[in-house]
Please model this.
Amino acid sequence: MSQPIPRRDFIKRALLAGAGVVGAPLLHQKLHAHLLPDAAAPAPFELCSIVGDGYFENTMKAIDALGGMQRFVKKGNTVALLINATFDGRAASTNPDIPLAVMKMCQDAGAREIWLLKQTGSAYWRRSSQYPRLKADVDTMRYEDEFKEVKIDQGKSLKSAEVAARLLSCDVFINLPIIKDHEGTRFTGNLKNMMGACSSSTCRRFHFGDSSVLNVFKGYYSNPELLAQSIADVNLIRRPNLCVVDATEILATNGPAGPGEVRKPREVIVSTSCVAADMYASRHLGLDWQELLVIRDAIDHGYGPKSLKEVSIRTL
Model:
């Protein structure tokens, strides 16, 4: 059962919401990361995981355990979803049952519009047994190929980025990654998924920086330190209001595209912190999160817990 929101926290959230309205005209100018709303996670950081079959229903149960979608989405809000749906191989993309459950909960909470930050085709949605009854709802979700340049004042490797315009203007941002192996970062989750909201030219800079084009010939994953730091930097622009992580069937080797070894933890993880969720989920790949550069770089930026001891974790 969710706990009542303390009066002090309620007032704080109301003031933050009002500040977002006042700051809206700034989005028409060249944006700076420090001007964007940081609605990532209240303290303490919260996480809920649920294991079992029925991923559509389990996603709803896990979100309900954190207070329900109405905690994050208010009537009239614009919601943006970032789904990892790039690859067709088994266990290489987020199970569509999970974003379909999120979409339905956002609609029920009164969302005015739901936008996709990365385009997903009908073939992706048809993988879900829920799609036939929710097709009309899926068709209402919108996508636009528009990017805006943002300065990242605190970035160490990445000083600016072109990101999806809707990431900047939406009221609520929900990240929907899949946990899997990755050749460049060893692990992909919430933090890495933010590259999906970036333009192709910006993504190339994650791998090669701003230096000579000759770096391309060194290999796409030749500089893991640059890649990890750039991912941590781009997450300074805006962290998710909610992370909904697919750890149901994951690619344990030969990521990000596969084919490779597939594991089936059957777990859905929801969290108010992208860093906490990545820490928690990395165990499914037999990894120590303290050895993952991207998580360490994110902690150095100060937008996540320093350990799982700071995270309120519940399991269903």
Q: What stands out?
A: The radius of gyration is 18 Å. The chain has eleven helices and twelve strands.
